[in-house]
Amino acid sequence: MSKKLIHVTGAVFIRDGKVFAAQRGEGRALAGFWEFPGGKIEANETGQEALARELREELLTEAEVGEFLARSEYEYDFGIVRLDAYLCTFTGPEPKLTEHQAIRWVTKTDLLDLEWAPADIPIVQAIVNRNF
């Protein structure tokens, strides 16, 4: 039996040479791992629309969703996650913790020191290999 494909989006915010990272909260799948905030794409939603909605729900802020950065796929025990990452810019208030236990701005060189969710690791590599 094939595993369920879960299509999600992730926001890559880069500001002043640093990258925004969010740590998954306790009691959630992959708790404690770092990720790019975002979530599932619902029916009749584009990836960009889903990402803007998820950022409003998860971080209580607004963001402009920009260019597509990279895609990764990772097979977890609960399904296959396809992650589409987009470059984003905050346009609303500073993000607030609702579902995450921590958020931080990390230098490009320190990105690899965080324990990333497996689906997010190829996105981290795409950022490290990009000039900004």
Written description of the protein model:
Helix content is about 15%, strand content about 45%. The protein is an alpha+beta fold. The longest helix has 13 residues, at about 45-60. The protein is built from 2 helices and 7 strands. The mean pLDDT is about 95.
Q: Please compute the radius of gyration using only Cα atoms.
A: 14 Å
Share in helix: 10-25%
Order of SSEs, N→C?
Answer: EEEEHEEEH
Beta-strand residue percentage: 35-45%
The protein's oligomeric status is: single chain
Query: Structural class, judged by helices and strands?
Result: alpha+beta
Quick overview:
The protein is α+β, with helices and mostly antiparallel strands and 132 residues long.
Features of the shown structure:
alpha+beta; seven-stranded mixed sheet; 2 helices; 16% helix; globular
